[in-house]
Amino acid sequence: MPSPARTHLESRLQDFDELIAARDLVCPDGRGRGRDAQGAAILRSSVVLLSAAFEAYVEEVYDAAVDLVFTQVSQGERNTLKNDTSGKLNNASTAKVNRLFFNLGIPWIMKHRRVRWQKFSNASVQKELDRIVKARNEVAHGESPYLRKATLLRWKGVIQRLADRLDEVVADHVHARTTVRPW
């Protein structure tokens, strides 16, 4: 069973899908090289939305785990921890995700042996996540990276699989700390 954060990620990714569908209306397949340039603004918007959806997922799964693991402290203290950590994430790069989950007791979560899948090593997962964040940052800061629809669809798949793996790692950690499987 996925975490509520993972379920919410799928809802957020529907907005990404809507942008890709809009791009297809503007630039139907089969129009040649010029089609990427014609729908470039939509593709740039899509990478920002994809990155934001993953960032929201990371914050949400972290916050849920904080509430489950640190039950011995008050809700106010947990809220302060969340505000000081996930509340200041600002782009879910590999390094920032690692730093965030250190606070929960999961050091280097992005290097965890389960953060990989067939034909996609852990190093590849980290590299792809950082490419997504880099493209997002370029768009957000006024640059125009060349993005292809196929790349964005592949990145969406990476985000979905990565969220699945992070859900497992966080659930295992919560279970080990509390003896209750959260999701």
What would your notes on this structure say?
- By secondary structure, the chain is mainly α.
- The protein contains 7 helices and no strands.
- It is elongated and about 55 Å long.
Main sheet record: none
The low-confidence runs, each spanning 5 or more residues with pLDDT under 50, are none
Q: How many domain regions?
A: 1
The count of helical stretches stands at 7
Spell the H/E element sequence: HHHHHHH
**Cα gyration radius (Å):** 18 Å
Roughly what is the average pLDDT, rounded to an integer? Answer: 93
Percentage of residues in DSSP E strands:
under 5%
Principal-axes shape call: elongated
Tell me the distance between the termini. Answer: 5 Å
Class by helix and strand content?
Answer: mainly alpha
Total beta strand runs: 0
* Percent range of helical residues: 55-70%
Q: Tags for this entry?
A:
7 helices; 183 residues; mainly alpha
Topology:
Blueprint: H1 4-26, H2 34-38, H3 40-69, H4 75-84, H5 94-102, H6 122-140, H7 149-178
Helix pairs in contact: 1-3, 1-7, 3-4, 3-6, 3-7, 6-7
Put the structure in a nutshell:
The chain has 183 residues and is an all-alpha fold. It has 7 helices and no strands. The chain has one domain.
